[in-house]
């Protein structure tokens, strides 16, 4: 059910400036509680980090939000690009992308034989209105649509400083470029919330610093919120407005980077300083 109000079934609520609210999210694999009654919310234009030790359940949280996994319990309320609030649980992953919730993956997944701009265009296929047949036959409607999205893809590449190499093949490009292309793809779907899975993994120091600036610029230019998982603590503390720390699928703390760094439970679980 789509709602304009802040209520669903008179129970769960979502604030006016809240883009995503997960409540009591839980999923178990066999006897293992990978996510255990987790709740947090993300505000509009907020950069929100999810941290925790290896195996804490971070990727599983992402998969439950995007419905790659169906949670055993809980709600995932999302304010979509039409300002409608809906529980995403039970929706299909492609429906969720259309609502403006998009993600990148830990491993870059590009088509090496395609140019960079064509790889970005792949990100817009979900928006195409023309039928598959008219796309294959390159009928006028499909050609017009492709031209529109190609222009948008070029604009996105221009914004990311990659316009000059847009026609080069993805094969052989530096890892930093491939990561940017993956990010560029998410911008083709009118994102309201972009989920980044370890965006700084594999980047060197200067690429990581450049990525921090780029994520901030994207948030401002595309007017969206960001949820990210990242092991590079400097990246997380420099970039995020708020951080949620989890351990064994459970919430440890939510707060500003300073509050999280000072939190003893987080230090014990994540930074390994508790017993010192
Ligand atoms: N499909 C699955 N089947 C069984 N167990 C799973 C599945 N997915 C995740 N798990 C388990 O759930 C727990 C949480 O895994 P998850 O990958 O979410 O952790 P993470 O915090 O993302 O770890 P990392 O930082 O190493 O990527 C782990 O114990 C993992 O083995």
TrEMBL record:
Q: Which Pfam families match?
A: ABC_tran (PF00005), BCA_ABC_TP_C (PF12399)
Q: Which residues form the ABC transporter domain?
A: 20-273
A single Gene Ontology MF term assigned here is: ATP hydrolysis activity
**Sorted UniProt keywords:** ATP-binding, Nucleotide-binding, Transport
Taxonomic superkingdom: Bacteria
Known CDD domains for this protein? Answer: ABC_Mj1267_LivG_branched (cd03219)
Name a single GO biological process: L-isoleucine import across plasma membrane
InterPro entries per record: AAA+_ATPase (IPR003593), ABC_AA/LPS_Transport (IPR051120), ABC_transporter-like_ATP-bd (IPR003439), BCA_ABC_TP_C (IPR032823), P-loop_NTPase (IPR027417)
The cellular component terms of Gene Ontology attached to this UniProt record, alphabetical and capped at eight, are: plasma membrane
Q: What is this protein called?
A: Amino acid/amide ABC transporter ATP-binding protein 1, HAAT family
What organism is listed for this UniProt entry?
A: Anaerocolumna aminovalerica
